Amino acid sequence: MRSTTSEQVTLEQVRQWCELAARASWEKGGEDTVILSVGETLSITDAFVITSGANPRMIRTMAEEVEEKIKAAGGPAPRSVEGLDDARWVLMDYGDFVVHLLLAEARDFYQLDRLWSDAERWTWEVPEARAAGE
After folding, report:
1. CA–CA separation, 112 vs 121, rounded Å?
2. 4, 23, 26, 47: which has the fewest Cβ within 10 Å?
3. Residues linked to residue 37 through DSSP beta bridges, in sequence order
4. DSSP assignment of 72-117
């Protein structure tokens, strides 16, 4: 774990925060969300959360929701947030994990999923309401 706080952060805590970020973005319309464990390959962080949004307004809304949900759960604030101006690709750096919120066309162009295809994927529960089409 690459904790940036005075207290030691466990990989289980990182995983829980990543799942919270995935659900928070999903609740605001995020799609094709994946959580990748990149710590074995990338020495600067343990995990990536990657999700797509339909438009810049949705990306900004997802970023606000992710930050709010993680903070409400006692998690850290992001060390930095980049890309909110045009909201094509918002990167939220939490130190131990990074949340990538991308417009669908930006995600197709940069292909982060393909770039990190060897990374282990962490599963997360998709809430039933939207999963069932409601």
Report:
1. 13
2. 4
3. 47, 120
4. HTT-PPPSEEE-TTT-SEEEEE-SSEEEEEEEHHHHHHH-HHHHTT
Let me know if residue 133 belongs to a domain: no
Give the residue from 40, 18, 44 showing the smallest Cα distance to 118.
40
Query: Strand 47-53 to strand 97-103: parallel, antiparallel, or no bridges (unpaired)?
Result: parallel
Predicted confidence (pLDDT) per residue in 35-57, tens digit: 999 999 888 999 999 999 999 99
Give the integer Cα–Cα distance in Å for 118 and 113. Answer: 9
Asked if residue 48 is part of any domain, the answer here is: yes
Can you give the CATH number for the domain in which 110 is found?
A: 3.30.460.10
Whether 4 is in a domain gets the answer no
Segments forming the whole domain that contains residue 32: 11-123
Segment 59-108, tens digit of pLDDT? 999 999 999 999 999 999 999 999 999 999 999 999 999 999 999 999 99
Q: How many residues does the chain have?
A: 134
- Per the structure, how many domains does the chain have? 1
